[in-house]
Amino acid sequence: MTTTTTPSDLGARWAGDPGADRAPTPVRTPPEGAHALVVGATGITGSALVRQLLDAGWRTTGLSRRRPADDRAAHVAADLTSRASLEEALADLRPTHVFVGAWARQDTEAENIRVNGGMVRDLLAVLGPQGSVRHVALVTGLKHYLGPFEAYGQGEMPDTPFLEDAERLPVDNFYYAQEDELFAAADAHEFTWSVHRSHTVVGHAVGNAMNMAATLGAYAGIQRRLGRPFVFPGSRAQWDGVVDVTDADLLADHQLWAATTPAAADTAFNVVDGDVVRWRRLWPRLAEHLGVEPQGPRDEPQPLEEQMAGAEGVWADLVAEHGLAEPDLARVASWWHTDADLGRPFEVVADMTRSRLLGYTGWVSTERALLRQVDAYRAERLVP
Length: 384
What we know:
The chain has helices spanning 9-16, 46-55, 83-90, 109-127, 143-146, 174-189, 212-226, 236-240, 248-259, 279-290, 304-307, 312-322, 329-332, 335-342, 353-357, 366-379, and strands spanning 3-5, 26-28, 35-39, 59-63, 74-76, 97-100, 135-141, 192-198, 201-202, 230-231, 242-243, 246-247, 267-271, 277-278, 294-295. Strand 6, helix 4 (109-127) and strand 7 form a beta-alpha-beta unit. By secondary structure, it is α/β, with parallel strands linked by helices. Helix 2 packs across helix 9 (248-259) and helix 3 packs parallel to helix 4 (109-127). The longest helix is centred in the N-terminal third of the chain and has 19 residues, at 109-127. Helix content is 40%, strand content 14%. A 7-stranded parallel sheet has the order 5-4-3-6-7-8-13, with helices on both faces. The protein has a two-stranded antiparallel sheet with strand order 1-2. Residues 67-326 form the PRISE-like Rossmann-fold domain. InterPro entries: NAD(P)-bd_dom_sf (IPR036291), PRISE-like_Rossmann-fold (IPR055222).
């Protein structure tokens, strides 16, 4: 397998444009006979990965309820919570590389473990005996260090930046359950694995639970329509502290790098852009870009889930006025997830030393990438 850096659109623009938002994107050429299966192919992480795989010449199949937007990919539909459905959909598929980026939020962490751990277990129980799998990549996140929703940020946590070799927290966590199912299947079926712990993912998706760019774009449109300021809804700790995020394209590239780099096998990695930002500096830039008046945080967080309660009527007006493509506000904005990201009362940053020591050099300018993504949503008439 060879990895070459070619002047892709982003790379060429970056090379001659100091305003570009990322380093040149390498082409991760497929190993001999490679067939990639992307689980969660229409999500914010999976859609970016499908696009990169296809652009690099991989035979690619997406597993999701709906077909991926990129119709170059083959598609299988299956219920990830049903072993029988997986057996029927994946019979004789024989992928060589499996990328798992799907999860389903449940009401309790016990249910998160049962459902999301079960997804990984059943998926690999179906694919493993086919004997074709060489590598499985699993996307999780920084709740590995912060704890699950039920105990988020509670108790004693590792100091920042979060290090990949930190001990697990002494609480139930569906990320741990997913990892354990991955490790067990890798031992049983003799494939390599990688775990990719992302922070807040910024990318392109509709109907996704983790979509800060679209959420803030919708918030700004509603506030502008109502003549209200663009108030930072989170905590003063998030406003004043440094934070990092994860660009979806960078996360996709990192998965392909780990899947095709022998030295990266059987390793868990943090994956973030490579820079840090402060919301007190970024928020006015974002507000200017969106045409709203910025305001800093109040004494207490002002959750978007509360501020935007009942905003569906305003959104309907915006849809009519701007000809927006998605009339269902809930498919554009995930208020609760952005509240969790911006409301934390402590600083959150992740260390990427493992990747750097193994030669991974990808990085993204968070500010420029966020503004670029907002522009992309506007161009597609998803936010006003």
